[in-house]
Design goal:
Blueprint (H helix, E strand, L loop, with lengths): L1 H27 L1 H11 L3 H22 L9 H17 L7 H9 L5 H33 L3 H27 L1 H9 L6 H27 L1 H28 L6 H17 L9 H11 L5 H44 L1
Helix pairs in contact: 3-4, 3-6, 3-10, 3-13, 4-5, 4-13, 5-6, 6-7, 6-9, 6-10, 6-11, 7-8, 7-9, 8-9, 10-11, 10-13, 11-12, 12-13
């Protein structure tokens, strides 16, 4: 019954998103869309390469996060796993977390399971924290860009909320994220399944939590370094918006590009329940681009070009998964031949 409700829930939001997507496409006209996408031309090269830089920076964060594990995993191997897991996340209908089990499974070949889980969890915590800081910066930028009272108040409210959440994250690093969660949910009947899981895995959870706290306490310079790395990745992602608009003969300032990307990513994270961002990405850019006095329709082109880039990296990720599988199967084949 629960599985049926989940499937219906996904289907409902997929249909809603698809209706929004189709409506916006029809409103623009297929001919106009093709003409504007074709204008991008050679600009697809920097748009695609920007995301390679982002993957390099993300991998650096993960590489530093697993330093405590003393694993012999190469940076290039981590990069391959990260690109592959990101491709799986793009294809995951809800929350975009399908790539995390793949990440842990592959990392555990080079370190023990607890370290594979803690380094992956630590990477995701840094990823989320950098987003929160980046969104806060975007709020400050919007306070400078807009003179409209409503936008000013809205930006200020969002900034205050984000500041509180960032403060809670810092407490989590000091006191332990999982320890806080255990104290909140442990023993509460409403969360019976979660309580049972916590009781079974309590020892492992505390080891993972200790690793996360230790990273903040003992490797403070690395802590700031990975935050900087992740923030640079967010700024690099903003340059994709800049390149797409520039290819359409629309010049915006770097701050405006950061605002567009930041507002879009915040909007999409709030609407995480919509499968594969169907319609939500187009709708968010339609509105956000319009707030800068640019034709709202341009937001749809930006979204579609961004989706082409996503499709390219999904293909690369799937190819890397296939190559990884073939590498693992080769020694097994040789072993079987020797047995014969």
């Amino acid at each position: 019954m629960k599985n049926k409700l989940k499937k219906n829930y996904k289907l409902i939001f997929l249909v809603i998103g698809s209706i929004v997507f189709i409506f916006l496409i029809i409103n623009l006209g297929l001919k106009n869309i093709i003409e504007n996408i074709s204008k991008t031309g050679v600009w697809f090269i920097p748009i695609i390469l920007v995301w390679f830089i982002i993957y390099l920076l993300n991998t650096f964060t993960w590489f530093v996060a697993q330093k405590h594990a003393k694993s012999k995993i190469k940076y290039s191997t981590l990069l391959s796993i990260h690109i592959s897991s990101s491709a799986i996340n793009y294809l995951t209908p809800i929350v975009s977390l399908g790539g995390e089990p793949y990440r842990i499974l592959n990392a555990s070949e080079y370190m023990d399971e607890e370290n594979a889980v803690s380094s992956t969890l630590l990477y995701n915590i840094f990823h989320v924290l950098s987003h929160l800081i980046f969104w806060s910066i975007c709020c400050l930028i919007s306070l400078l860009i807009f003179r409209d009272v409503t936008m000013f108040i809205l930006s200020l409210i969002v900034f205050v909320v984000l500041s509180v959440v960032i403060f809670l994250f810092i407490i989590g690093f000091k006191k332990g994220f999982l320890d806080i969660i255990m104290k909140v949910f442990k023993g509460r009947l409403i969360f019976k399944k979660l309580n049972n899981y916590i009781e079974k895995k309590e020892a492992k959870i505390l080891i993972i939590d200790k690793t996360i706290r230790g990273f903040y306490s003992n490797k403070r310079k690395y802590f700031y370094l990975v935050i900087l790395s992740e923030l640079l990745a967010r700024i690099a992602a903003s340059s994709e918006i800049y390149f797409i608009l520039y290819s359409l003969n629309i010049v915006v300032s770097p701050f405006q590009a950061i605002y567009i990307y930041g507002a879009m990513s915040l909007f999409l994270n709030l609407l995480f329940f919509i499968p594969m961002e169907t319609g939500s990405k187009e709708a968010s850019l339609y509105y956000i681009v319009g707030t800068l006095g640019i034709s709202s329709q341009i937001g749809i082109y930006v979204s579609l070009i961004s989706r082409i880039r996503e499709f390219f990296w999904i293909i690369i990720g799937m190819i890397l998964i296939k190559l990884n599988k073939s590498k693992k199967s080769k020694p097994q084949l040789k072993h079987n031949k020797n047995e014969v």
